[in-house]
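To: structure subgroup
Subject: Chain for Friday's discussion

All,

I'm putting the inputs and outputs inline so they're searchable in the archive.
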Amino acid sequence: MRLKAAAVLAPCFWRAGEPWVYLTMRPMTLRKHPGQISFPGGARDAGDLTPLHTALRETKEELGLEPDDVDVLGLLGAMPTITSYWVTPFVGVVPAEAPLTPHAGEIAEVLEAPLWRLRKEKRFIYEVDRDVYVWGDGRHVVWGATFRMLDQLVTHVEAIGRS
């Protein structure tokens, strides 16, 4: 089976001396992945020259963040998903108070997650015990491919920021 190319952006920012990241919650009305939390991004379009172009284009479409407002730091490990995508995740720094204009058809809610305060837990999702990240009151749950990407990001940021 050939995997379809996709890319996402982990848009990071600093607030009160700690690193945060924007995540998006998909509307419950969507056919694919309703209600799930993810990084902005999506499938490669024919006009995208590179995976980075895909990530930046999708981030602009979903959040209204201009590519020039993203200071791309690098990428995390690309990975396959169970939905037949090969996802390349990029990490970028954005202004802390960047004006976001979420696309209502694709984004139900923009979430701000404090990287140093995320908690790893086990949750029973789709009849399987899964590793997840939660924060605050625990109502937002990140799992699956986004969990794996976020786990890489948290590991890198902790190594840099707490040394």
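Points worth raising on Friday:
The chain has a mean pLDDT of 90.
The CA atoms of residues 63 and 102 lie 4 Å apart.

D.
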